[in-house]
């Protein structure tokens, strides 16, 4: 899904409750990761795509730079792909654990999330309606399997909304105003 498709989807959903829920979740996501944002999926589905989009948005909001935590990183993996479960054991207050699980979370995932919550991490979940996982979360965004939005689209909406929150500062509004007044740059 490219930026134009995400924009079109946001416009289509603007009259629904989805955009309000997404913006609220994005605000909590942005404000929760004071020290580190840990992104964690299931053993079967690691949230690579969401990690890439959050990394893009971190240009505007440094707190959105994710650390992808993997269940079993292969030996010799590059540093950004070699973060394993030991990182969850080191979770502390001031960090956020963002769990992405479309299906019911396996018990060993729930145990790790519960441990991170006990250490003081803020738990956020994007999921398909797993009550146990939602119960551990400080903030949850539920994607109904038969709802308006697919799980993949929800990930795009969350990352875009998280980045949008920072693009409406006074400086950004002033820059857009100056661009509007000055007009397009002329080629040399």
Whole-number total of structural domains: 1
Q: Helix amount, in percent?
A: 40-55%
Strand content is: 5-15%
Order of strands in the sheet with most strands = 2-1-3-4-5
Helix-and-strand structural type: alpha/beta
The CATH topology annotation reads as: Rossmann fold
> What's the CATH C level?
Alpha Beta
- Give the biggest beta sheet: 5 strands, parallel
Separation of termini? 35 Å
CATH architecture designation: 3-Layer(aba) Sandwich
**Apparent shape:** globular
Descriptive report:
- By secondary structure, this protein is of the alpha/beta class.
- It has a single domain, classed as Glucose-6-phosphate isomerase like protein, domain 1 (Rossmann fold).
- The chain has eight helices and five strands.
- α5 (107-118) links the parallel β3 and β4 (122-127).
- α2 packs across α7 (151-164).
- The radius of gyration is 18 Å and the shape is globular.
- The two termini are 35 Å apart.
How would you sum up this structure in a few lines?
With 188 residues, this protein is α/β, with parallel strands linked by helices. The chain has a single domain, classed as 3-Layer(aba) Sandwich (Rossmann fold).
What are the salient characteristics of this protein?
5 strands, alpha/beta, Rossmann fold, five-stranded parallel sheet, 188 residues, globular, 14% strand
Describe the protein's topology.
Blueprint: H1 3-13, H2 17-32, E1 36-40, H3 48-57, E2 66-69, H4 86-89, E3 95-101, H5 107-118, E4 122-127, H6 131-136, E5 139-142, H7 151-164, H8 170-182
Parallel strand pairs: 1-2, 1-3, 3-4, 4-5
């Amino acid at each position: 899904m490219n930026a134009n498709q995400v924009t079109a989807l946001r416009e289509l959903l603007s009259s629904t409750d989805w955009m309000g829920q997404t913006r609220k979740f994005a605000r909590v996501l942005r404000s929760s990761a004071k020290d580190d944002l840990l992104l964690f999926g299931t053993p079967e589905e690691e949230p690579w795509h969401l990690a890439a989009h959050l990394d893009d948005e971190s240009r505007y909001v440094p707190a959105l730079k994710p650390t992808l935590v993997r269940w079993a990183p292969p030996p010799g993996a590059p540093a950004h792909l070699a973060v394993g479960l030991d990182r969850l054991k080191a979770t502390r207050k001031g960090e956020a654990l963002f769990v992405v699980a479309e299906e019911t979370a396996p018990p060993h995932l729930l145990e790790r999330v519960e441990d991170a919550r006990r250490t003081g991490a803020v738990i956020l979940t994007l999921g398909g309606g797993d009550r146990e996982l939602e119960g551990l979360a400080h903030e949850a965004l539920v994607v109904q399997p038969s709802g308006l939005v697919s799980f993949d689209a929800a990930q795009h909406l969350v990352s875009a909304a998280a980045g949008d929150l920072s693009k409406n500062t006074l400086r950004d509004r002033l820059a857009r105003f100056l661009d509007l007044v000055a007009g397009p740059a002329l080629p040399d």
